Amino acid sequence: MDQAMLSVVRAVEAGATTIKGVIDATRLSRLKIERALNALEKQKLLVRDGQGFRATGLPKTTKPARQCGSCNACCDILEVAAVDKPVNQLCKHWQTGIGCNIYDRRPQMCRSFVCAWLQGHLDDEWFPAKAGIIVHFSQDAVNVTVDDHCPDRWREEPYFSKLAEWSLNGIRRVGNRGYATLIVSGENRFLLLGRTIVPEPTLFGTAFLPLTADTFRFWRAASPEHLRRLHERVAEIERIGQEFGSCAIPENEDDDPQAPYRPALLRLSGHA
Predict the structure, then answer these.
(1) Would you state the CATH architecture of domain 3-55?
(2) Burial state string for 82-103 with b = 16 or more CB within 10 A and e = fewer than 16
(3) Sorted alphabetically, which PANTHER family does this protein's record hold (predicted)?
(4) What does the radius of gyration of the chain's CA atoms come to, in whole angstroms?
(5) Domain residue extents for the chain
(6) Looking at the predicted structure, is the pLDDT value of residue 206 above 80?
(7) Considering the chain, what percentage of its residues have pLDDT values greater than 70?
(8) Is the pTM of this model over 0.90?
(9) Segment 204-209 mean pLDDT
(10) H-type helices in the chain, by residue range?
């Protein structure tokens, strides 16, 4: 069962009965959801009838490996727009000693959310109430949200090394199977490239080149066209490196390269 199917399964188990409900819960595209639903139906793990979707005979591995217990970090740290809950502010519907006072009618995001610790992917050092860090997986990212009472906790060990490992795994995956590792800490946003931290990555993307096995030179794109040019230059750097054994990498993080790239790179590298 792939990640999209697992995400759909969790959404249906949590109460999503329509395509819109599954989209809201998983943030997957309609096409990916339809493919996952069709595959689940063929495996007789899900049925569709006049009342919507219904899970049947799902593998035990789709259920959380742990219980939340005393932890209410997701009700405190995460943003839940459906109940006007901002990030790093305890939900107004949470009551000490009672828990969620709208549990039976809680939003779909709350119903379907399962953090990585609850799934059993992380050891007890990552228990959200202890770590102040919530990790959850989406289709194309490892998402890390940090309690503003310990905004730099993710930079500490054992957390940072694990996040760097996930980042490298996501970078090395081929094509659409790759994923990003994203950190939200208060008002700050970071993209992790191995052990290299990219502050405030833009919506247009980040081009990068390896410097060592786990560090990178990066350029944040200011537009789709800028990202295209950055990728073209990265490709040329790699080609020159293969031909000559080395190629200098431009130092300016925010530069905007213009074609042709090769002559300037050859001069910079001393190969001209």
Answers:
(1) Orthogonal Bundle (1.10)
(2) eeebebbeebebeeeeeebeee
(3) UPF0153 PROTEIN YEIW
(4) 22
(5) 3-55, 73-199, 206-269
(6) yes
(7) 90
(8) no
(9) 95
(10) 3-13, 19-26, 30-42, 73-77, 108-112, 128-131, 159-172, 224-244, 262-269
